[in-house]
Amino acid sequence: MAKIFSSKTFTINGSKVSLAAGMKHDSPIVVLGVQLSTSGPGSDALSFIAIDYPMRSIERAQAFVAEADEAVAIRGKSEVESKFGDVISRITMAFGDNAATPAPVKRINPFEAR
After folding, report:
1. Using an 8 Å Cβ cutoff, are 54 and 99 in contact?
2. Domain segments of the chain as ranges
3. SS3 101
4. What is the pTM of this model?
């Protein structure tokens, strides 16, 4: 984001949810940021996700953030989990302890008696 005008942060069930009003590429936006799991296998792979919501004006974006309460943060977090939950869990699994490790390649020893 090129410039942040205002922001708020909430803690919902141990996760941080942030809303920021600003300008990106000369367009007003509200950015919803959600902290994902900070513990467990694969949590380092994807710890935070941010989604931009275009707004009609910077004044509207700032008003939205100023008026946002915990209910707005909960709705935003729920939306992220419902829209991106499958992708998030796949990334977490791919980089976690339970990630599939390729089987070692069996090398042929040309000097071995057959």
Report:
1. no
2. 3-95
3. coil
4. 0.73
